[in-house]
Specification:
- The chain is α+β, with helices and mostly antiparallel strands and 136 residues long.
- The strands form two sheets. The chain has a six-stranded antiparallel sheet, with no helix packed on it. It has a two-stranded antiparallel ribbon with strand order 1-4.
- The protein is extended and about 75 Å long.
- The N and C termini lie far apart (80 Å).
């Protein structure tokens, strides 16, 4: 019968175990995170922009929710979609180099299965609620 001799020192064995535990922890954490995200419903913010006196304006226009956290782009007909948005409240802005368009607050309810409503943003009187037709 032959004896098996380990060539790893105690320090190397401890380091190897620590790395193994860390990898297992990270894998478990990522799986848990994916499970949490997968269980949450995602929605779309939709609308249409019409700018008639600037040919090709769509290629220079970005629609931003929460200052770039979510982005959408104008299609040829002016419609846009900001995809994969979680329930919450978002400031939606149209960013174009030649035009200023008033921002809109869009609220997606998590309690009423994604009910979406929109209202004008008023930085001077923030408590004033003026509803806007949705889709924008």
């Amino acid at each position: 019968m032959e004896a098996v001799v380990s060539t790893q020192s105690t320090g190397e064995t401890e380091l190897s175990l620590a790395v193994s535990y860390m990898i297992n922890f990270l894998v478990a954490f990522v799986l848990l995170l994916l499970e949490c995200v997968a269980g949450e419903a995602l929605y779309e913010i939709r609308g249409q922009i019409i700018i008639s006196n600037d040919p090709g304006w769509q290629s220079r226009t970005v629609i931003s929710a929460n200052f770039g956290e979510y982005l959408g782009y104008a299609q040829q007909n002016g419609s846009f979609i900001i995809p994969n948005v979680k329930p919450g409240s978002y400031i939606v802005e149209v960013l174009h180099p030649n035009f200023l368009i008033a921002p809109v607050r869009v609220e997606i309810s998590s309690k009423t299965s994604g009910r979406i409503r929109a209202r004008k943003v008023d930085y001077v009187q923030p408590n004033e609620v003026v509803l806007v037709k949705y889709p924008l």
